[in-house]
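User: I've been going back and forth on whether these two constructs are worth ordering. Before I decide, could you fold them both?

Assistant: Sure. I'll take them in the order you sent them. The first construct and its structure tokens:
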Amino acid sequence: MDDILVQRFEAYARWRNSAFAEELGNGIHGVVRVVENNLNFRRFAVKIHRYADPYFRERTIYQRLAARGIITIRGFNVPQLLGWNDEWLAVEMTVVERPFVLDFAGAWLDKPPEFSEEVWQEWESEKREQFEERWTEVQAVLAELRTHGVFMLDVSPTNIAFRV
């Protein structure tokens, strides 16, 4: 974890009177860790983002899904928004079990990106290879997200995970 994320996690932990447990994920946009809150004995996840733009996108998507009461998408669990902190670029959410869909920092809001047909074909080819026979089901999840104005591009078996 880079220094800026360590500093944000430490500041966030002091602010929340919490301790961090295991890391759940680490990617280009940030790090997700389990938080054990000392005040109310709750266990939840926090994603600290590296950059503001992906943070605000992801926060807005979780707010939108929460406002619409979305807890699952086609049987895939969606983390529930618990809170956020714009200063530390932190999103608080529930920890979900497989199957799940998560990580919206790389998504587009309200309109898809304008890529060439060639780029889209290459993207889809890569995704078909990653998901194999489950690609049709992933496409259905993505289509459902689009009905909520969420155009998810960072699609991988770690972000759309099946039961096993």
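The second construct, handled the same way:
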Amino acid sequence: MAQARMRRERVGFGWRPANTAPSDYGALLREFAACETSGLPLRVSNRHSDATIYDCPETNLAMRFWHDTGHVLFGLSFELDDELELADHHLEAVRGEGFGPDTMEHQLLHADTFGQTFFQLCTGLFVGDQVRFDTNCTLFGVEEAVARERSALRTGR
């Protein structure tokens, strides 16, 4: 939440949950520019916000705002290399707050950013149960977590 609040102060607008939010880089750039002009909040997807590693859905929405605005501020598209670079920016920020690679916080954020990016690359889908997936990443590694989540999707678990 602190990162999102700092970002809100930097860009001059906040965020709001929405069923439809920018889903490609061009749409995000256009909405970001409109929010800069109007001061209206950026729409962030409220889909899949119930089962996350964050303490509540509102924190997950704040993470999405921090992430989406990072795309624009760092000039990073939705392509794999840029998603991974943005994930590294997120991890750098938490390391700056004292959460090193050996901490659970860092490991879960790594799973939430890098791991979910790899899942989307492998499946073209968004992780449904982020808690399960991120926990599996920390326990078994990204490859095994992707395999387990794909299996869960196939069997409807």
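Notes on the second construct follow. The mean pLDDT is 93. DSSP finds seven helices and two strands in the chain.
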